Amino acid sequence: MILHDAFDGYTRLDQFQQSLSISTSMLTARLRTLVADGLLERRPYQTNPVRHAYVLTARGRSLRPVIVALAAWGNRPLAPEDRSMILVDTTGEEVEPVVVDARTGKRLDGSEAYAFTAGPAASEGMRGRYEELGRA
Predict the structure, then answer these.
(1) In this predicted model, what pLDDT tens digit does every residue of 39-59 receive, in sequence order?
(2) How confident is the model at residue 92 (pLDDT cuts 50, 70, 90)?
(3) Residue 100 forms beta bridges with which residues?
(4) Which residues does residue 71 pair with via DSSP β-bridges, in sequence order?
(5) What is the rounded distance in angstroms from the CA atom of residue 106 to the CA atom of residue 114?
(6) Phi, psi dihedrals of residue 12, rounded to the nearest 5°
């Protein structure tokens, strides 16, 4: 939810706190983790007293498609009048995001044509798992 708010343009602790209604200590801990993970950058915006803004990094901005897909997934079972937020284009028309393969343009949802398999850095345990599933 912090990242969702950051995509909406929130950068200050008080903005996040008002939106999320969580304690300052919990919010501070979560922001610290997001900074440590390289998703947000902490930048001073005031010197007396010192106050910091939390700005999305390139890595953080790269999560936008994931957040958009999760929001769309959450809206799918809801009637239109029960959705608390929707994704719209520049004309204000609602859009329905989908995840597609960049190479072929094929949709990845509900497809039996795609499956996970072990990647180059997979542990022996993970390789064994996919071998058992016939995906080595």
Answers:
(1) 999 999 999 999 999 999 999
(2) very high
(3) 107
(4) none
(5) 10
(6) -100, 150
On the CB side of 134, how many CA atoms lie within 13 Å of its CA? Answer: 0
Phi then psi dihedrals of residue 34, to 5 deg: -65, -35
Classify residue 9 as left (phi > 0), alpha (psi -120 to 50) or beta.
left
φ, ψ of residue 84 in degrees (nearest 5)? -85, -20
Hey, what amino acid is at 77? P
From the list 45, 38, 40, the residue with the least C-alpha distance to 5 is: 40
Which among 7, 124, 24, 20 has a CA at the least distance from the CA of 66?
A: 7
Beta bridge partners of 43: 53
Q: Which two tokens stand for residue 110?
A: 């509900």
* In the block, residue with structure tokens 């029960």: 82
Give, in degrees to the nearest 5, the angle at Cα 98 between 96 and 104. 140
Residue keyed to tokens 């936008």: 64
| Residue 16 near residue 7 (C-beta atoms within 8 A) | no
Q: Which amino acid is at 56?
A: L
Q: In Å, how far are 117, 119, 131, 136 from 128, measured between CA atoms?
A: 10, 12, 5, 8
Residue with tokens 């999760």: 70
